[in-house]
Protein backbone atom coordinates (compact mmCIF):
# COMPACT_ATOMS: atom_id res chain seq x y z
CA UNK A 1 0.00 0.00 0.00
CA UNK A 2 2.79 2.36 0.90
CA UNK A 3 4.47 1.82 -2.46
CA UNK A 4 1.31 2.56 -4.41
CA UNK A 5 0.70 5.71 -2.44
CA UNK A 6 4.28 6.83 -2.93
CA UNK A 7 4.17 6.30 -6.68
CA UNK A 8 0.83 8.04 -6.89
CA UNK A 9 2.29 11.01 -5.09
CA UNK A 10 5.33 10.89 -7.36
CA UNK A 11 3.07 10.78 -10.41
CA UNK A 12 1.10 13.73 -9.12
CA UNK A 13 4.32 15.59 -8.45
CA UNK A 14 5.55 15.00 -12.01
CA UNK A 15 2.18 16.10 -13.36
CA UNK A 16 2.30 19.33 -11.38
CA UNK A 17 5.89 19.88 -12.46
CA UNK A 18 5.02 19.40 -16.12
CA UNK A 19 2.03 21.69 -15.79
CA UNK A 20 3.99 24.42 -14.07
CA UNK A 21 6.81 24.01 -16.59
CA UNK A 22 4.33 24.53 -19.42
CA UNK A 23 2.89 27.62 -17.78
CA UNK A 24 6.30 28.99 -16.89
CA UNK A 25 7.90 28.18 -20.26
CA UNK A 26 7.89 31.74 -21.63
CA UNK A 27 9.31 32.99 -18.36
CA UNK A 28 12.01 30.33 -18.40
CA UNK A 29 12.88 31.35 -21.95
CA UNK A 30 13.29 34.95 -20.87
CA UNK A 31 15.14 33.80 -17.80
CA UNK A 32 17.79 32.12 -19.90
CA UNK A 33 19.39 35.28 -21.17
CA UNK A 34 22.59 35.06 -23.13
CA UNK A 35 24.72 35.66 -20.05
CA UNK A 36 23.04 32.81 -18.26
CA UNK A 37 23.46 30.60 -21.28
CA UNK A 38 27.17 31.17 -21.22
CA UNK A 39 27.36 30.59 -17.49
CA UNK A 40 25.61 27.28 -18.08
CA UNK A 41 28.10 26.44 -20.81
CA UNK A 42 25.54 26.98 -23.54
CA UNK A 43 26.25 28.82 -26.75
CA UNK A 44 25.32 32.50 -26.58
CA UNK A 45 24.22 32.62 -30.17
CA UNK A 46 22.22 29.46 -30.63
CA UNK A 47 21.71 28.01 -27.14
CA UNK A 48 23.42 24.79 -28.26
CA UNK A 49 21.04 24.23 -31.15
CA UNK A 50 24.10 24.74 -33.37
CA UNK A 51 21.97 26.36 -36.00
CA UNK A 52 21.05 29.94 -36.72
CA UNK A 53 18.01 30.64 -38.84
CA UNK A 54 18.74 32.51 -42.03
CA UNK A 55 17.62 36.11 -41.74
CA UNK A 56 16.94 36.52 -45.44
CA UNK A 57 14.60 33.59 -45.98
CA UNK A 58 13.39 33.33 -42.36
CA UNK A 59 14.57 29.75 -42.18
CA UNK A 60 12.56 28.51 -45.14
CA UNK A 61 15.46 28.22 -47.57
CA UNK A 62 13.55 30.08 -50.26
CA UNK A 63 12.90 33.69 -50.99
CA UNK A 64 10.38 35.33 -53.24
CA UNK A 65 11.92 36.40 -56.45
CA UNK A 66 12.13 40.16 -56.69
CA UNK A 67 11.65 40.66 -52.98
CA UNK A 68 15.28 41.11 -52.07
CA UNK A 69 15.07 44.82 -51.40
CA UNK A 70 11.99 44.78 -49.24
CA UNK A 71 9.92 46.35 -51.98
CA UNK A 72 8.27 43.75 -54.13
CA UNK A 73 8.24 45.51 -57.45
CA UNK A 74 7.71 42.33 -59.46
CA UNK A 75 4.75 41.33 -57.32
CA UNK A 76 3.14 44.70 -57.70
CA UNK A 77 3.62 44.66 -61.44
CA UNK A 78 2.13 41.21 -61.91
CA UNK A 79 -0.69 41.93 -59.54
CA UNK A 80 -1.63 44.93 -61.64
CA UNK A 81 -1.96 42.90 -64.80
CA UNK A 82 -3.79 40.10 -62.99
CA UNK A 83 -1.19 37.39 -63.41
CA UNK A 84 -0.80 36.62 -59.74
CA UNK A 85 0.25 32.97 -60.16
CA UNK A 86 3.70 33.68 -61.50
CA UNK A 87 4.42 35.95 -58.57
CA UNK A 88 4.54 33.09 -56.08
CA UNK A 89 7.65 31.78 -57.77
CA UNK A 90 10.30 31.24 -55.18
CA UNK A 91 14.00 30.99 -55.65
CA UNK A 92 16.54 29.25 -53.49
CA UNK A 93 18.03 31.54 -50.91
CA UNK A 94 21.62 32.27 -51.88
CA UNK A 95 22.56 33.42 -48.42
CA UNK A 96 22.11 30.00 -46.83
CA UNK A 97 22.22 27.83 -49.97
CA UNK A 98 18.52 27.02 -49.52
CA UNK A 99 19.14 25.29 -46.23
CA UNK A 100 17.27 27.88 -44.19
CA UNK A 101 19.93 27.96 -41.53
CA UNK A 102 23.62 28.29 -40.92
CA UNK A 103 25.69 26.20 -38.62
CA UNK A 104 26.47 28.35 -35.64
CA UNK A 105 29.89 29.99 -36.14
CA UNK A 106 30.56 29.89 -32.42
CA UNK A 107 29.86 26.19 -32.13
CA UNK A 108 31.54 25.14 -35.38
CA UNK A 109 34.77 26.70 -34.15
CA UNK A 110 35.07 24.00 -31.53
ZN1 LIG B 1 18.30 31.77 -46.41
ZN1 LIG C 1 26.23 28.09 -31.17
Catalogue the ligands.
zinc ion
Identify the overall geometry.
Answer: elongated
Separation of the first and last Cα atoms: 53 Å
Number of strands: 4
Query: How do the strands line up in the largest sheet?
Result: 1-4
Low-confidence stretches: none
Specify the structural class: alpha+beta
Mean pLDDT: 73
The DSSP helix count reads 4
Largest sheet: 2 strands, antiparallel
Order of helices and strands: HHEEHEEH
Beta-strand portion reads 5-15%
Helix content: 40-55%
Radius of gyration: 23 Å
Structure description:
It contains 4 helices and 4 strands. The longest helix is centred in the first third of the chain and has 30 residues, at 2-31. The chain has a two-stranded antiparallel sheet with strand order 1-4. The chain is elongated, with a radius of gyration of 23 Å. The chain has a domain at 51-108. Helices cover 44% and strands 11% of the residues. It is α+β, with helices and mostly antiparallel strands and 110 residues long. Residues 43, 45-46, 50, 104, 106-107 line the site of one zinc ion (ZN).
Write the layout of secondary structure elements.
Blueprint: H1 2-31, H2 34-39, E1 51-53, E2 62-64, H3 73-80, E3 90-92, E4 101-103, H4 105-108
Antiparallel strand pairs: 1-4, 2-3
This protein binds zinc ion (2 copies).
Residues 54, 56-57, 61, 93, 95-96, 100 line the site of one zinc ion (ZN).
Write a concise synopsis of the structure shown.
The chain is of the alpha+beta class and 110 residues long. 44% of the residues lie in helices and 11% in strands.
Characteristic terms for this protein:
two-stranded antiparallel sheet
Amino acid sequence: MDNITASEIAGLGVGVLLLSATIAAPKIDAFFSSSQRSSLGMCKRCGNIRRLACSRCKGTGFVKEGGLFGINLVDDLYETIGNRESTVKQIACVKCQAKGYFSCPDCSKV
